[in-house]
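Q: Sequence in, structure out?
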Amino acid sequence: MITIAGAGVAGLACALELAKRGRSVTIYETGNGPSDNKCSWFAGGMLAPYCEGESAEDVVVQLGMGAVDWWDDITPVNRSGSLAVAQPRDRADLSRFARRTTKHQLINADQLAELEPALTGRFTNGLFFKDEAHLNPRRALIDLTDRVLALGVDIRYGTPAPDHVDVDCRGLAADQPDMRPVRGEMAILYAPDVTITRTVRLLHPRIPLYLVPRAGGQYMVGATMIESDRTGAITVRSLLELLGAAFALHPGLGEAEVIETGVGLRPAYRDNIPRVTRHGDTFHVNGLYRHGFLLAPALAAQLAAHFIQENADEHHSERCSA
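A: Exactly. Output:
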């Protein structure tokens, strides 16, 4: 049996990949359900490897390319692509974003209006990443939980992990010395009269905003640059900046209801690249930073490959000694 600490997106993805390969898995989780995993619960749910290439290393882009198909087998995925736009005064930011990313098409105002009629007349051009997607991370977390349970994985909620586990997916709770917390803040808006259908990034030199549609007229808004290691609720300054940027994207969002705000401290290595590492007899799947749903599938597959290879090596050693 393989034991895993943590039932966030990383732990569940690892459990799924191991269970699919016929391994017996037990997960220990101190929380009482999926919603207690704040980093996963408050995620944006963007499956956007090419946009992430603007600031992330190429390995992040490469690892994220298979995420859309992986999640599409588990939970509903909106595969309509994503957009990046900028106000006329920030046109240089759009040009810089284009230079630093790949797999996009430069579109004019008419093409933008055809893709997103709600943005008609608001921007002169934009970047369309047709191969990107998004999902609702909360539904995805619940659907992934259901999938691993159906495969016989034992999830022990409200139960601290034992002193030794085979796989540690607890993020900051793993207390790795080279890990740092990165604060992520978000708000969920209810704006039934706004009909944006795909993820939109509003580029700005100080606070780049992303808006992710959710069902029932809801939108999740967040920013990639409001980050620190401070715990607690969202700050007034951050909320004002988020809402101001949302209003700049579409004036109709100025009439939206703020139905929820949230904060999560995301685990990150110094280079912001998630990885599978081994310390003694324990594998660590950690440092997912803001790429949890994007990179968890690839890291989980890497982890499973380690276990399969170990089993093969042990079997070969036993045959040789016999």
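The radius of gyration is 20 Å.
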